[in-house]
Each structure stands twice: as C-alpha cells, then as structure tokens.
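Support request, please re-run this one:
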Amino acid sequence: MNRKTFKKSFSLVILIIILLHLFHCRKKERLLIMSVTGPLQAAQMGEALTHEHILVDFIGADSTGYERWDREVVAEKMLPYLRDLKEIGVKTFVDCTPAFLGRDPVLLQMLSERSGLVILTNTGFYGAMNNKFIPKFAFTESADQLAARWIQEWQQGIGDTGIRPGFIKIAVANADTSSALHEKLVRAAARTHLQTGLTIASHTGPDKPAFAQIVVLKEEGVDPDAFIWVHANRGTRDGQIKAAKMGAWISFDKVDTTRDMLNACTEFLTDMKLANLLRKVLISQDAGFYTASKPDGGDITPYTTIHKLLLPILKEHGFTDDDIHQLLVTNPQKAFGIKVRRVSQ
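Re-run finished. Output below.
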C-alpha cells in the first residue's frame, strides 16, 4: 500500500469512527469537536479562545502559498505566546485564519503538539476586503460546487495532510445588501453544515449583513444556532439581543488593552447577562499574529488580554465564577460541538 492510499484509508477509518461516535452519543447529547490532531469530546475543550490567529498572509489569493513562510521559524516565534496561554489555564485555541489568507494546518498541528493546546482550523472562503482572498474559481463555481470542496476537506482532510477542519469560516462585506458572491458563500456554508455539522463562523460586523445571512441560512434549512456572528461588537445592542434570541452566537472578539474596548466589552456582557443571554455569547481577542509579509513576522499581540485585564474588571462588576465558566468553557463547547442544526419544522 503506497502512502497516498494509506492516507485515504486512514482518513476513511477516522471518518467512520466520528460517524459512529455521533450516532452513539446523540441520545446522550455528547458533542464532538475536531482539532488539528484529531477528534475529541467537546467537554475536553476546557477554557477556549474562539477567535485568534497564529499566522496570516495578506498578499492575496493569487499569490499566497506555504513557500512564503518557514514553519519552523513561525513555530519558534509563536510557541512562547501559546505556552503563556497554557500557563494561565487556556486549553483550546480556535485559529480563524481561512484558506488563501495564511491557513496552514501542518503548522497548527506542529504548534498543538509542542504547546499542548487543542487547536482548531477551518474550511471555507473569506469574502471581505473586496474579495482579495477569494480564489478565482470561486467566482464562477456554484454554491454546491464550493460546498463540495469544503465537505471534501471534512471527509478527507485539507490537501494531503489528513488534518480536518473544526468549523466553517466565511466572511462577507459589511454592506447593507449582500452581493451575489457573498450570498453564494453563505449558501455554500449552509449546505456544508447540513452535511458535516460544522458550525459557521462568519466575519460580519454590523447588524444588516448579520441578519441577511440568518435569512439565507434559514432558507437553506439551517438553524441560527449554527451561526457565529463574528465581530458582533460592531453591531447594535438591539441587534445583538435580537440575534441571540433567534439562537445565533454573538461574538465579541476584538478585546484589546485599550480602556475604551475593555469598557465596551464589559457593558456588552453586562447587558447580555441582564437579558439572560450570556449563554449565547463568545469572547475572544482576534490577536496574534505572525504576518508573512513582514520581517520576522512583525509585532505579535499576546493572547492574554482577556485573562489579565478583562476578567478582573468583570469580577468587579459582579460577574461570578459561573458566569466566567459560561463564557470561556460552556459556550465554546456548545458553539463548536459538531451537530447538524436544522430549522425546526
């Protein structure tokens, strides 16, 4: 048996194990997640950061490639930041860098093994920033064809790595009206979800594109519980609350060290708690990251702002240990647990 045949056979065995697990655990409501080192129980995620980056490459879909960085150099620079996370109690790191923007599953697997962190990568395409990171074929392929590509990554692994995505990452423009291309990305993501159970995390921003996506997802038969409104901190409070009540995950994922941002996040979380919607909230930092085009990767933003700055402020404002556990442990498990979520009939 040659190496390629072995990898395909091994991938098929892993997929069968996953499907058997999902069937066996359906009655028990035990969710599975997919990390870059393989499947594990969602309950094993521990504290999780749900929107971070190890490496990005902003050169564009037509020019990016693994040859633009040295994995060992990147790993050496980023490993101390991941070990810092491990020391403060974080166990799971969700890497949101999409394909054609620097996604490197092999690098993530290396760092997971060396740091001891659980790391998730993704499938999907990123349509923001004037479609700079969309490959040419995606402009002409149908939603079904795009979904087939993403489903194949789930079934067989990304490229020839055997490494599977743990969620779907897309991005749409922050415009009031969706373009045909971006609506196609959402439909492809919906169809991929229905075949894989992977959650859809969509770089979105304001209210209108968020609700436009929810409409499309429902048309495709996907419940909003399968949708993470990424950068929801750019939306309105009314919109955040409305989407959460519909079932969507509301992600405040730009926590940084500025007083304005820390105050804004504290106010957001307080309002969501008062509305009894803390159970639909995710928080993260969108931090890092090694930039392929910059000397030595440029400046790196640590991933520790939430733990070192935000959590003490939240406790001063009456947030309990249970509230913190909800945000960092319970919600990520439910948001990224692999489960097909159909619109209720």
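The chain is about 45% helix and 15% strand. The mean pLDDT is 94.
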